[in-house]
Amino acid sequence: MIDAREPLEIDAAYEPPRESRPSLRPLSVPTVDEGRAPGFRELYDGHVAFVWRNLRRLGVPEVEADDRTQEVFVVAHRRFAEFEERGHGPRAWLFQIVLRVASGARRHRRRHPEIPDGGLLAAQGVIPPPQTEALERSQRLAQLDAALATIDMGRRAVLVLHEIEEMTAPEIAHVLGVPLNTVYSRLRVARGELEQALLRQGEGR
Predict the structure, then answer these.
(1) Which residues contact 167 (CB under 8 A, 6 or more apart)?
(2) How many CB atoms lie within 10 A of CB 192?
(3) What distance, in Å, lies between the first and last C-alpha atoms of the chain?
(4) Three-class DSSP labels, 109-172
(5) How far is CA 84 from the centre of its chain?
(6) CB 143 within 8 A of CB 201
(7) What is the DSSP letter of 57?
(8) Computed over its alpha carbons, how large is the radius of gyration of the chain?
(9) What gap in Å lies between CA 144 and CA 137, rounded to an integer?
(10) Dihedral through CA 126, CA 46, CA 105, CA 162, nearest 10?
(11) Angle formed by the axes of helices 89-111 and 62-78, to 10°?
């Protein structure tokens, strides 16, 4: 069980284990604008894990994470010519796309709720019983997923960017396009909501 009074190892919990890292088919970079193709390939190879884990943090079930990661990079490729380095790095730009894709996936699941449990049972079912450590990790991840799911998407984005990706408040304000004071406010509320969600989980056991 996750103790809300102790520091959360959210990043460790969300780092995909070796057997469930993104199993993505290599993206076929179109031959249009071939001069920029190597730059996009470098972007993809260097940030595919970042995109995958942040989609998971924003509520995309593991069973959908590979496809949604591909979707993010399809959008990124289409808009690659628009990307300009302004001191915040490609992760800030990619996270904007991640947030939109995760929000779209959430709306889709509301309209087509094929996976009522968000895919958690399916994810847990692939772990062989002898692998106790993997099972415990999967259970902790399920707890964290459930707790994060109770937080509004806007506040959750601030929480994961600050607590997990270690972005500063000004960087987050730039990424999300919101005032700095809004970042501080959302972060404060999201921390409280996460703590309360984890406490309710503990009381329910």
Answers:
(1) 92, 161, 175
(2) 12
(3) 9
(4) HHHCCCCCCCCHHHHHHCCCCCCHHHHHHHHHHHHHHHHHHCCCHHHHHHHHHHHHCCCCHHHH
(5) 23
(6) yes
(7) H
(8) 18
(9) 11
(10) 100
(11) 130
The tokens for 64 are 């959908």
pLDDT at 106: 79
- Domain positions in the chain are 10-203
Q: How far is residue 1's CA from residue 112's CA, in Å, rounded to a whole number?
A: 31
**What are the residues whose beta carbons fall under 8 Å from the beta carbon of 90, sequence distance 6 or more?**
43, 46, 47, 83
CA 56, 62, 67, 69 dihedral sign is positive
Report whether 36 contacts 80 (CB < 8 A).
yes
Please tell me the distance from the alpha carbon of residue 83 to that of residue 5, in angstroms, as a whole number.
41
Residue with tokens 């920029």: 36
Alpha carbon distance 136, 142 (integer Å): 10
**In whole angstroms, what is the distance from residue 145 CA to residue 157 CA?**
14
Regions of the chain with pLDDT less than 70: 1-38, 85-88, 112-135, 137, 203-205
pLDDT tens digit string along 132-160? 666 676 777 778 888 888 999 999 999 99
Residues 150/155/158/160 CA torsion (nearest 10 deg): 0
User: Residue 154 has what pLDDT?
Assistant: 92
